[in-house]
Each structure stands twice: as structure tokens, then as C-alpha cells.
Amino acid sequence: MASTRRLAAILAADVVGYSRLMRADEEGTHGRFMAHRRELLDPKIREHHGRIVKYTGDGMLVEFGSVVAAVSCAVEVQCAMSRRNHDVTEDERISLRIGINLGDVIAEPEDIYGDGVNIAARLEGLAEPNGICISQTVHEQVRDKLPYPFEDLGHLSVKNIARPLHAFALRPEVIVTLAAETALTLPPAGVVATGFRSGAPRLSIVVLPFANLSHDRDQQYLADGITDDVTTDLSRIPDMVVISRNTAFTYRDKPVDTRQLARELSVRYILQGSVRRSGNRVRVNTQLIDAENDVHVWAERFDQAADDLFRLQDDVTSQIAVALDLELVGAEAARAASNPDALDYILRGRAALNRGSTPDNFAEAIRLFETALALDPSSVGARAFLAHALTGRVLEQITGTSPGDLDRAEQLVDEALAASPRYPLAHLARGQVLRARQQYDVAIPAYETALALDRNSVLALAALGHCKFFSGSIEGAIEAQEQAIRLSPRDPRVSNLYWRIGMVYLLQARTDEAIQWLEKARSANPRLPGPHAWLAASYALRGETARAVAELAEARQLSGDGRYSSITRFTDSRSWAPEIHTLAESTFFAGLRQAGVPEE
């Protein structure tokens, strides 16, 4: 069979002082190690869906489809070993060192090769007896998903690796504490140890293979393609734990007991779906199941023309990923937590933002993200979401502390990107800070980077179009907002998207169309001041003075910075490209003047 390349989490482990133990008691050492393998190691690896590539006498090499699963397995094994060795004398004690790396491997049926494997072996050598050592790439993946305090060892030079390794360690003394806290018990002889289970990760999901319901069985490729793309897109969502495609596909065409499946994979949610093609139409049905309670959380149907299957696949998978992000955050934030940690507060803060752009929602979200950061000062997610919330209320014109909010947000973004340069939300938040400071040209590459890292970022897509608009490129501004609406038609910030479309139409002197979109924006979020101001100008241009005056009064009441008190005050608060300002003079500003806004 030909070899293949794939990305994998690689776990390397060996027995500390194995040669010494074998010299002292060859038969006894071998028997004890085999008992650990039979009763603990092998079952744990199966439980976390790892593949034992090979045993090396005193060690082993294991491949996992998930980094979170690899680290969870390693921690549970070392905790169990700590308990099993509690009353064992040193000359009989089997202790392990474990190293974990995430990298590209050349896979064959009986072995795996490549630098990813070599680095895992070097990390295992750096680990202390009874400890775990992981690479920087692994740490970036698990730092906000698993609650284990890995210590930064810095950059270390190791044999046969060209560049120093940035390594992180979970110390033996920490593992002893974890073992005591989880109260692991030794299994009786002959009984398989299942270890402890602290509950599935909060944002954890498996995407089961979508069923092909078409009469043509050759259409299976489309169902499989959507399954693959949804799995990939969900894995880009912050704090999301997604079971690998290879593991999920082992359940194809099998009856599913949702609770049993959730226990086997250690997930909270299961996504199922089907694809049916009939003529030139494709229908995709999806349903999200809370496996803990065996209840449906969300279901949706997508109907598309099949004339461009690649676009159809992209559109459907993106819409599913965006919708699930909103649904899962809301579901998890609603769960009661007796001892909430940083991630609990981050999820609650995200849920507060998803309720809509109001002063109270922003204040609650900021408080929750501040709490998360206080609980975990190293959290990249807490920093990025806090920066996002601070800039959000500035952009929505509902804060009186704009300079301080932006300064704090900029500092948080810098810290987040220094710790995790590829964190999509941190790049989005940087774009938001720059956009709030009206540095539109500089904000554009920040949003483009965010989209390169997460193609389903509705906010980055819409804000990118907004920045290009204010930089003078009015063409395509409406298309960007419409694309964002198509991706997330029930987005909590959809009012902003409607508002921007209305703005463009008004600047193009298409007043009736502008009013239609601005009224939709007002209905979607009545507490957003911008749509009221643009409606005031639109109504005035159409001769509806009373309605214009009422909308202007509402805009002034809701705005936190007084920008609608005069034309000068507004222009001082905005930095538009000359061509946009020229269009505004004959439309927006002309309408505001007719509604009663003075020059000074």
C-alpha cells in the first residue's frame, strides 16, 4: 500500500530507567509494564481514538486525529500512573515520560515517519519522569480548551533538529495534584481501567457523515464533501473541539445511539445531515443534537441550485458553520456551572454580545470577559473577545469612553497576537480598533488576515467591505454586506449590514431603496443610533419632515458621542474619502440640514 501524508498529533512515550529495571528484575519488570499496557494504556488510547503505531520495547508511538484527545489521553494516563504507583517501591515502579507534537507525517500501515515524529521523540526526552512535554503548536491548540497549567520552557536545542524547540511542560508535581483532585481509583486485577471523565469539553462536536438520499448513489461524493468542509470550518471556531473526519467516518451507515456515541467520543454535540439531489436542485438537511439530553438544539434546511456544485458546497458549509457557532455558544452559555472557569465566562460574554448591540449587552459582555481574564491571565481568547467588545461599543456609538476603550483594546490585541499570532479573532479585533480610529486603509489587511484564517467570519467580511467603501471604493460595498447576510441571515448584528446597504443607496441618491434597508435596520435593532440618523436624512429628502425630525431626535438620544448635534461635529467624528464626502454633501448632509441639524 502506498504511503500517504497527513497532519497528526503524535504521542511518544517511554519507561524511565527501563534498562536498569530490567537488569534488576527482568521478568517482573516486563510483567508490570504489560499489566499497565493491558489495564491502562491500551484502553485509554482506544477511549481517545488513538492508533498505536508501534511499541518499541520500553516505549510506544501513538497517532491521534485530535490534539485535544492526545493531550487529554496523556494527562489521564499520567494521573492514573501516579495513583497506581502510590504504594509501589522505587525499584519496582514503572514511570513514563510523554512527548506530544502536531505535525505532518508520512503514514504507512505499520509506521509513521517525518520531522513531526522526530520532534515528538525529542519532546519525550525533554519530559521529566511522570511528566509531559508538548510543542508550541500543540500548546496553541489546547491552551484555551484544556485546563492544564503547562509551563513555558522556552526555546531548547535538541539533537538532530535544526531549530530550537519551543516546549511546554506539565510538571510531575502538577500531575500528582491533578490525580488527587480527580480521585482516580486503582482498578482491580483483570478489570479494564476507564480512568476519570470530567465531562466532555464544552464546545465539543462530531460531524457524522452526511447521508446521501439521492437515487443516484454516485452522488455520495457531494455528501462526503459537505461533511469534510463542515468539519474543517467548525475546527476554526475558537475553543471548538471537533472529532477528526477519519474517526467520524467509522460511524457511516451505522445506527446511532446519541448518548452512547457521545460517551465513546467524549463530545457534547452531534451534527447529522443528509443531501438529496433532484434534477438541478440540491437540498441539505441538518440537525444539531445535545447528546447529554438527547434533544434537538437546532435544525435547518438549505435549498440550492446545483449548477455550480463547488459554490453550493462552499455556501452550505459556511452557513452551517456560522449558524452552529451562534447556536453552540448560546447553548453552552445557558448551562449551569457550579464552578465556572475562564471558558465559561468567555462563552457567557459571547452570548451577551449575540443578544444584540445595546449598552447593557456590551457592559455585561465586557464584565464577563474581564472576569475570564482575571481567572486566566494567559487566555488569548479572553483578551481577543474583550478587545472585540470594547471596540464594538465604540463603533456602535454607544459609549462615552471611546479613547480609553480603544487604548485598552489595542493593548489587548497586541498581547493576544504576541501569544498566538494566528488567532483569527485577534486580527479581527485589530481591524476593529483601526476602523474605529478611521484608519480604513490600514484596517483592510487586518480584516483580510482574519478572513484568511477563518473564511466564515461574517463580521470581518462585512467590515472589510465597509472599510473599502469609506476608502472610496463604493463599488462592491453592497455585495459584501449581502454576502455576509447570506452567510448569517439571523446574525445578531444583521442590523448593521442592513444599515450599510441603506447608506450606500442614499449616497447614490436612491432614496426609496435606502429607506427600505434603513427601516429594516431600525426594526432589527431599534437602539442602534446610526440607522435613525440616516433615516432622518432620507425622510427629509423625500419631504417627510415630521418623520425626519422624530428619527433625528431618536438618533441624538441613543448616540453616546453627540455627533448628530451639528454637521461640523459629525464631519469631525468621521474621516471619509473625498469622493464619499462629495456624495454625502448632496444626500446625507443635505437631508440632515433639512431635518434641522445646524452647521455648527
What do you see in this structure?
With 600 residues, the chain is α/β, with parallel strands linked by helices. The protein folds into three domains: 4-182, Alpha-Beta Plaits (2-Layer Sandwich); 204-334, ABC-type transport auxiliary lipoprotein component (Rossmann fold); 482-600, Tetratricopeptide repeat domain (Serine Threonine Protein Phosphatase 5, Tetratricopeptide repeat, Alpha Horseshoe), CATH 1.25.40.10. Helix content is 54%, strand content 16%. The protein has helices at 18-24, 26-47, 67-84, 115-126, 136-142, 172-182, 220-235, 245-248, 258-265, 309-334, 342-354, 359-375, 380-395, 402-419, 424-436, 440-453, 458-470, 477-487, 494-507, 511-524, 529-541, 545-558, 567-573, 578-586, 588-595, and strands spanning 4-15, 50-55, 59-64, 96-108, 111-113, 132-135, 151-156, 165-170, 204-207, 211-212, 241-242, 269-278, 281-290, 295-305. The strands form two sheets. Strands 1, 2, 3, 4, 5, 6, 7 and 8 form an eight-stranded mixed beta sheet that branches. Strands 9, 10, 11, 12, 13 and 14 form a six-stranded mixed beta sheet that branches. Helix 3 packs across helix 6 (172-182) and helix 13 runs parallel beside helix 15. The chain starts with a strand and ends in a 5-residue tail after the last helix. 48% of the residues are buried.
CATH architecture of the largest domain: 2-Layer Sandwich
Our count of domains comes out at 3
Distance between the termini: 79 Å
Low-pLDDT residue intervals, each spanning 5 or more residues = 183-198
The CATH C-level class name of the largest domain: Alpha Beta
Give the proportion of residues in helices: 40-55%
Number of helices: 25
Q: Based on helices, strands and strand pairing, what is the structural class?
A: alpha/beta
CATH topology annotation of the largest domain = Alpha-Beta Plaits
Question: How many E strands?
Answer: 14
Mean pLDDT: 85
What is the molecular shape?
A: elongated
Q: Biggest sheet: strands, sense, closure?
A: 8 strands, mixed
What fraction strand? 15-25%
Rg, alpha carbons: 28 Å
CATH superfamily of the largest domain: Nucleotide cyclase, GGDEF domain
